[in-house]
Amino acid sequence: EPEVTQTPSHQVTQMGQEVILRCVPISNHLYFYWYRQILGQKVEFLVSFYNNEISEKSEIFDDQFSVERPDGSNFTLKIRSTKLEDSAMYFCASTRDGSNEKLFFGSGTQLSVL
Amino acid sequence: RKEVEQDPGPFNVPEGATVAFNCTYSNSASQSFFWYRQDCRKEPKLLMSVYSSGNEDGRFTAQLNRASQYISLLIRDSKLSDSATYLCAVNSIPGANNLFFGTGTRLTVIP
């Protein structure tokens, strides 16, 4: 079964540093998403991306965050200057047709900001 | 205002028991409803969609009550492998692709 792949599985960084989280969506999928989950809290939507542009974003996704699809396979989330409160599990997801019914999540990147 | 609310549990039930979870949502315009399963420190995995007419998949039954704005999940004949956190998710913005998740209900099935 095809999978959404995320790297790295764990990322430790110092406060104020930039991080890039990487995702390879399923190859024939067209809609891409980032969600995050702070330890012990709910999964929260960050941003969705379609046709090389952001289609929706939440209040969490402020100017410190950006997304990019630099080539035909990768989808990245950049946090420009990390804060302690950015520590969370970040999940990438993709769908073929934008339907939430077939939302496939990657296994996540655990980001720890020290 | 919380978009989606769930009883966090934990629910501790013996093997073979029937257990039910409810989830309420605040936006009456919500159109899509789902139950996800999340194992510890893992990604959410879609368990089932929730349709207006209710739907069943083996030991799992999902129901939607639009009038009272809640969805439910019933698990019959609980197995040890059912131990997980069950998340409800709602697409609260018609035409949008993002989901609002509840905080999840922790289920432990005891031998």
Structure characterization notes:
The complex is a heterodimer of chains A (114) and B (111). Chain A has 114 residues and is an all-beta fold. Chain A has no helices and 11 strands. Chain A has strands at residues 5-7, 10-13, 19-24, 31-37, 43-50, 53-57, 65-68, 75-79, 88-95, 104-105, 109-113. In chain A, a hairpin with a 6-residue loop joins strand 7 and strand 8 (75-79). The termini of chain A are far apart. The model of chain B has no long low-confidence stretch (mean pLDDT 92). In chain B, a hairpin with a 6-residue loop joins strand 4 (32-38) and strand 5 (45-50). In chain B, the strands form 2 sheets. In chain B, strands 2, 4, 5, 9, 10 and 11 form a 6-stranded mixed beta sheet that branches. The N and C termini of chain B lie far apart (39 Å). Chain B contains no helices and 11 strands. Chain B is mainly β and 111 residues long. The interface between A and B is medium-sized, with 24 and 23 residues.
What oligomeric state do these chains adopt? heterodimer
| Computed CA radius of gyration of chain A, to the nearest angstrom | 13 Å
Low-pLDDT stretches of chain A are none
CA-atom Rg of chain B in angstroms: 13 Å
Q: How far is the first residue's CA from the last residue's CA of chain B?
A: 39 Å
Strand proportion of chain A, as a percent range, falls in: over 45%
Secondary-structure element series of chain A:
EEEEEEEEEEE
* Count of helix runs of chain A: 0
Approximate shape of chain B = globular
Indicate the mean pLDDT of chain B: 92
Structural class of chain B: mainly beta
Number of distinct beta strands of chain A: 11
Helicity level of chain A: under 10%
Biggest beta sheet attributes of chain A: 7 strands, mixed
